[in-house]
Design goal:
The protein has 7 helices and 4 strands; from the N terminus they run E-H-E-E-H-H-H-E-H-H-H. By secondary structure, the chain is of the alpha+beta class. Strands 2-3-1-4 form a 4-stranded antiparallel β-sheet, with helices on both faces. It starts with 6 loop residues before the first strand and ends in a 5-residue tail after the last helix.
Length: 179
């Protein structure tokens, strides 16, 4: 079996709304959430997304703040996620983000590979985003602009990385991705 089929791509992005989610300013964004989530759910390569019983993740705190909203999902590969983010109806919502959300000075989106079937947690996503902010793109957490291919490392190494707050130097030095 090709190594790539053993892995799926997790993504997290956060945003700080300019006003409360029930404000008139955010009404169009909130109205777009259900159709955009349905578009994602039906997109080729979509695997999973974080959601509450309400069908979205807007009520889930991230970084200990109720002022931030989180979006987290898992995709078959980078190409599938890229098609959805940049070439679907999602683009129209992204174009309007500045009218709904405060500009972020630090990275607000992180990507990383997970073993197929593993679903990331919010604390893990926070660690990945914090790592991207402090270290830049690495196999542990990367951006669309500086992606890493699916790793060829054994799952035991990945599980050790998942259980640590930060990537240990001895693991990250050995955690190489095929070109």
């Amino acid at each position: 079996m090709e190594a790539r089929t053993l892995w799926e791509l997790a993504q997290v992005n956060i945003a700080r709304p300019l006003e409360s989610l029930d404000s008139p300013l955010l009404a169009e964004f909130m109205a777009a959430l259900t159709p955009i989530n349905a578009l994602a759910d039906a997109a080729p390569g979509f695997v999973w997304r974080l959601q509450t019983d309400d069908g979205d993740a807007t009520a889930i705190p991230v970084f200990g703040s109720t002022e931030l909203i989180v979006n987290m999902s898992v995709w078959r590969d980078l190409e599938s996620l890229g098609q959805f983010v940049f070439k679907s109806g999602h683009v129209e919502v992204m174009r309007r983000r500045r009218s709904w959300f405060a500009p972020m000075t630090d990275a607000y989106t992180a990507l990383w590979w997970v073993p197929a079937g593993v679903r990331p947690t919010v604390p893990e996503a926070e660690n990945r985003l914090a790592s991207l902010r402090s270290r830049g793109s690495t196999p542990y957490a990367f951006s669309f602009r500086s992606p890493f291919p699916a790793p060829s490392a054994p799952f035991e190494i990945v599980e050790q990385i998942r259980s640590d707050d930060e990537t240990p130097a001895e693991i990250s030095a050995d955690w190489r991705c095929p070109v």
